[in-house]
Specification:
- With 411 residues, the chain is of the alpha+beta class.
- The protein has twelve helices and 20 strands.
- Strands 5, 6, 12, 13, 14, 15, 16, 17 and 20 form a nine-stranded mixed β-sheet that branches.
- Helix 1 packs parallel to helix 5 (118-131), helix 1 packs parallel to helix 9 and helix 9 (311-331) packs antiparallel against helix 10.
- The radius of gyration is 22 Å and the shape is globular.
- It binds flavin-adenine dinucleotide.
- Residues 9-15, 33-36, 54, 58, 60-61, 142-143, 174-176, 180, 198, 200, 236, 279, 298-299, 306, 309-313, 315 line the site of flavin-adenine dinucleotide.
Length: 411
């Protein structure tokens, strides 16, 4: 029977990041089971550079903490080829006077964060997994059954029409928000449907974006406009679900005019727009993240509202701490799947997970609230923030993923 120390099911952004972190920082043997086709090495050592289709047209805002961690596990040089840095963050509300801005100079950092297209992140993570000798890729492959053993799991994996049993000391479930492994393990998920969708596309602004990230609270919901390489911007527009059809039906000119209006003309209009894709928005949380021999991470553990661009950044912090705890387990010669090892991981992650989920959830609820007086308080809040360096700094640190007490797992 094939044996790995750690078997990760799901080689998406989070599962792949964990595989790379473990391969860089430990001598553990790692298996990754991914339903889609991942890059492979041909016998002459060349990589097939497939774009992993699980990385769609979306972009991801990486906090400074995430950028540093990706550098720490050897991925930043490759990623940097196509990322755009964020030097300024501008937060405002449509039709209101309050505005706040965060500047890299004020924070004393080279950049506040960076934006990467998911397709490129997929290529870099896929190539890194294919080149690490400690990572064994099973793709395209799926899990057909899971059996809990006295130590670890026996996982049946179907690949190329054959099913084989793989034994692992630790099973990591990273197969996304619709996790079939969680269903097999009878782990329920608590779900809250926001009755909103995120409409995502790329635009070319008429005025250079100057590495500015905009977070704007509009009448329909919050929107983010992030700087991309080649003078493009990535738009995430949150809409009530029943308004999606109207936005999808607009021709490109009408759509660009609507975005320009929502932005209050700050980008000087737009000259080009890409394909518009939409994602239903839900807050999904696994009711259990650990079982003896098993840990659930990424969207399978918590899938959040994208308002504050925190989902992947939160999961990278989970990856960093899980890696640290597994290193300690190896040093202490304790089984990787021992419940106390996983409890220690979850205890260290609980506060940050709770705070980040609440931050994303409450932020969108506050800004969509029609309670009289709240709107004025919000505007005043943004203005006050601009003149209150401590509060602004706290907001910047949250956005940069550098909150006090939250390790970036750099050790
Ligand atoms: C509109 C939008 C914008 C966002 N913007 C940001 C942002 O700016 N910053 C940020 O930090 N986060 C952002 N996020 C959140 C971020 O996208 C998620 O946190 C991230 O995608 C989670 O990755 P994952 O690997 O857990 O899940 P996924 O990306 O869903 O990967 C799961 C993987 O598992 C595989 N899989 C599924 N089932 C099986 C199976 N049975 N066997 C084997 N493999 C399987 C899938 O093929 C897939 O590759 C955003 C989300 C949305 C919706």
């Amino acid at each position: 029977m094939k044996k790995y120390d750690v078997l990760i099911v799901g080689g998406g952004m989070v599962g792949a990041s964990l595989a790379c972190a473990l391969a860089t920082k430990t001598a553990l043997s790692i298996g990754v089971v991914e339903a889609r086709e991942l890059p492979k090495k041909s016998p002459d050592g060349k990589l097939s550079q497939h774009f992993n289709p699980s990385y769609d047209e979306r972009s991801t805002a990486l906090s400074l903490g995430t950028c540093r961690y990706l550098e720490n596990i050897g991925l930043w040089d490759a990623l940097q080829e196509h990322v755009e840095e964020i030097h300024h963050i501008h937060v405002s509300e449509q039709g209101k006077f309050g505005v706040t801005s965060l500047e890299r100079e004020e924070e004393g950092v080279e950049f506040l964060g960076a934006v990467v297209e998911n397709a490129w992140l997929g290529v870099v993570l896929g190539a890194a997994m294919a080149s690490h000798s400690k990572i064994n890729l099973h793709s395209p492959a799926t899990v057909t059954s899971l059996q809990c053993l006295e130590e670890g799991y026996c996982v049946s994996v179907e690949e190329n029409g054959h099913t084989e049993d793989i034994h692992c000391a630790l099973l990591v479930v990273a197969d996304g928000a619709n996790s079939s492994c969680c269903k097999m393990l009878s782990i329920p998920h608590a779900q809250e449907d926001y009755d909103q969708v995120a409409l995502v596309t790329n635009l070319t602004p008429n005025i250079p974006h100057q590495k500015m990230a905009y977070e704007r609270f509009t009448r329909t919901g919050p929107m983010a406009l992030l700087p991309l390489r080649d003078e493009r911007q990535a738009l995430v527009l949150t809409l009530p679900s029943d308004q999606l059809e109207a936005y999808q039906a607009m021709n490109d000119e009408a759509f660009m005019a609507a975005v320009d209006e929502a932005m209050g003309g700050r980008c000087g209009g737009f000259s080009k727009v890409g394909q518009r894709l939409s994602y239903p928005l839900r807050l999904i949380r696994a009711e259990q993240q650990i079982l003896p021999g098993c840990v659930v991470i990424g969207n399978a553990a918590h899938s959040l509202h994208p308002i504050a661009g925190q989902g992947f950044n939160l999961s990278v912090r989970d990856v960093a701490i899980l890696t640290e705890e597994l290193i300690v387990a190896v040093e202490q010669r304790v089984s990787l799947g021992k419940f106390s090892v996983l409890q220690q991981y979850l205890e260290r992650r609980d506060l940050d997970q709770h705070a980040t989920i609440q931050f994303s959830d409450k932020l969108q609820k506050i800004f969509l609230s029609k309670v009289p007086g709240l709107s004025l308080a919000r505007s005043a809040g943004l203005t006050v923030l601009d003149f209150w360096p401590t509060g602004k700094r706290a907001l910047a640190r949250q956005a940069m993923g550098l909150m006090a007490g939250v390790s970036n797992g750099q050790h």
